[in-house]
Target: Outer membrane assembly lipoprotein YfiO
Amino acid sequence: MKTWHKTMLALAVTAAASLSAHASSDMGSCPWGYEGCFLASPPVLDTSNDSRDNLLRLTGEKHAFTPLRQPIPDDITRSRSYYFGPHIDEWYNADAPDEETASPLAETAFDERLKALNLSADELNENTFRGDDASGRFISNSPESASALFAALLADKSLTPDQRTTLARARLAVPGGAELQTMLSELPYAEGSAAAFRDYLLAADHFYQGDYAPAAAIFARLKDSPQPWLAETATYMLMRTALNQSTANASGEYGEFMVLKVDKAAADRAQAWAESYLQRWPEGMYASSTRGLMRRISWYRQDWDRLAALYEKAFAQAQSGEALVALIAENDSKLQSKDLSGYDDFFISAPDAPLITFTQTLRLMRATECDDNAPCVDDAFLQAIKPIFDNSGKPELWRYLSLRHQYAQKAYPAVVSAIKPVDSLPASDILLFSEQVLYGEALMAQEQWPVARSHWLHLLGLSKDFEQQQYLQAKLAATELESGNVDAVFAADSAVTSLRYRSLVLKTKASADLLRQQVINGPNSEERTIALHTLLMKDLIDGRYGEWLTDKKLASHISRPVIDEAFSDVSLTVFDWNGKQTEQGYYCAALANTVSVLAKNPDDAHALNCLGEFFRTTQAKVNSWKEAEGNDALSSAVADALDNGKPDRQRYYQQIITDNKAEVEDKAYALYRAVRCYAPAGYNDCGGEEVDKRKRKGWFTQLKTQYPGSPWAQKLDYYW
Model:
């Protein structure tokens, strides 16, 4: 495992342990926004979604950005990898992100300017641009910022070549402490640009040393310099100096940053300098940086309304999907989920932030226990925030919140009455799509299955979006199952084409006849393999031994049974078990021979033990773990049948123990295995209902007293 993944997994687990029920994410996922960590929520605006997913979908469609979307399989009828849930394996196996490096252009400019200043790369060493990133002040001690100073030196015609070289060499020594400051102070520059650049370097060295007061004093003098680069840069650095001053004592007992310890007065000064800079240079060299730092300043000042408004503006101005993801992650940690970062209060709403207020209200709707910090979302709450949406020209967002609230109150007829089914779906309108889904969910909640089925089919016919189509297929499949129409999922004209959904239904709800039908008529080898594996497993588990012998011949309908890792749960090779894996000392024939014996005599003790050995040594079962989660309503529709494909070896052993006709060897082995069902922790791993310890003790005693010469009595030293 890569070190990066180890670290991130540890962080994710730690975070999961500390989050409350109000968390933006329900956790159990990979770190949001990382490579391979796709959106876990479906393509609707829902209370159960990660708030970041809701916000990303809502803001991303305005730009036509689609970051963090999971890749579309080449053929959904052959893949089970597309689902709405955590994709931990994909993230875990993704490559670690590359270290950030300066662009080739920036490096070229730096090298060219070094040469123009009569300096060479030989003057750089491991201490050049050094700094402790934890403090935050060294972010600008980089080749890029040094190159900007070099450009200013080269552009200033009042400087001599020697002055430019001396000042540039001094920049490479920053931070240099007392030695550098002494050298700078002794430079014979009395006035003009040379003296101003010297003073700037003195201030910069103080800044990087953490000596903010003398740095601020010098930058304050330079902000009115006639040298344009110095005036602009000094004003910007006044903001950064005040910002760093505000956090100088904001550390906790273990060195962790604690925003509640920020010096508010210094943060206020940083705010004033940021505004001064933007007023004077609205499109300046540092305008973008300053606007970004304005969000940090508002966070430090706990000015939540302003911070929310700044985020909304930044969302609208995002230049890429990656930038939008970073902004939403920042917003979540600093604002929407600040209750998880040491604050006692929740962010509730802000007058100029309808999108954040909307997604936060969806988050608050999850709560069942409310208090003064996190109020319940009721009619009064919704009326109180309604002006935010009216004033911003987004009343449709408030309407959706109101509909969601009615749905939560089980006012399903009111929801159905308020929403009109559409005749078309735009390429990107998640709010409209979410309303249409809510309409269908309200129909399902009232068990209006035929109407719900028609609605999902109607939307599937309208939608041109792959993600929406997969989500609607899950709704349709769930509706068919809830109405008892399982076979409809596999009809020739079925709109449910996702192998994941079809596989899940086959494993949980399909009858033996339906499984046989899909082995013969399934659309591809993948589905036929799943159907046959499920059929053969359930034949064995349900004791249909004669049918197993017949059904096994259906393998001839599968030209190429799938054998790759993605289908390891349905490998048909498991049925080729030859009996040699049985515990030494107890002989078993191959599975086919064992089943042949059981087909003639279902109570044959030796064959039952051997069938148990097949299940024990192979761990074979109808395993839904590969597709059980992330299927929305379909997961709920099959939940009661997920355990139907688990074998019950304990039942075989109990039958043999009470069988007066069973051979001594078989009964002793059944007693041995029955006791060992609870090894080593006292929990049953053989299937079936738990047996209490008194019963297990009885089996142990029976084995020891009635069959003392048996190797199984000798091998068993205690019971669990």
Observations:
- The chain has four domains: 3-92, 105-413, 414-497, 543-715.
- Residues 543-715 form one domain.
- Residues 1-22, 99-103 have pLDDT under 50 and may be disordered.
- Residues 134 and 257 are 10 Å apart (CA to CA).
